Amino acid sequence: MVASTSLNVVPDDPTAYKTREYWEERYQNEDSGTTFDWFKTYDELKPLFDNHIRDKNAKILILGCGNSTLGEDMYKDGYRNITNIDYSKTVIDNMKERCGDTPGMTWLEMDIRDLKFEDRSFDIVIDKGTMDAILCNRGDVWEPSEELINEVKQEVDEVVRVLKVGGAFLYITFGQPHFRRRHLERDCWEVKITTMGEAFHYFFYSMVKQQ
After folding, report:
1. How many domains does the chain have?
2. Are 79 and 60 in contact (CB under 8 A)?
3. Bridge partners of 208?
4. Which of 13, 16, 93, 193 has its CA 20 to 30 A from that of 53?
5. Which pLDDT tens digit goes with each residue over 149-187?
6. In terms of DSSP H, where are the helices of the chain?
């Protein structure tokens, strides 16, 4: 994780990361200018993004944006059609204010498991740690509950629906392939994995929709 001027708020129960209430309370107690980036910064991810996003005018959706600088950093790098969503109203309001001088950037309160977009609306969908929040659970990581499987399935199914044919889903996580691949596999794409880091590994999953 990479933090910048952020409160180090770690809940006693990791399943709190799955709840809207936790994030609302956290963002309400943070200064509106606070930033926090899970896992990797844009500069670290840029070489991988450049391989998958060839057009700076691509229509991009960032899932669970929080107060990460990812969207802003991509904007500074020339991307101009970015939609950021989060189900915390507080953080969306804060980000709208913080990024008021970035025409082409949109901030919407929305649940990633119920996207309010038309089919095949986006060229690129990015998840940087958001699925990991859903997967926070006290159960057996090798045998996740049906409820947990269904929650993640809702997210991935929605990504498939809103992606254009030829579009890519880019997912950044510390989740190892034997825990994550099962949730990502679909008939419409192949799951490709790039490992980042040395002592502690992060994983970049890329999936291009073929049909």
Report:
1. 1
2. yes
3. 168
4. 93
5. 899 999 999 999 999 999 999 999 988 999 999 999 999
6. 20-28, 42-52, 70-76, 89-98, 130-134, 146-162, 177-184
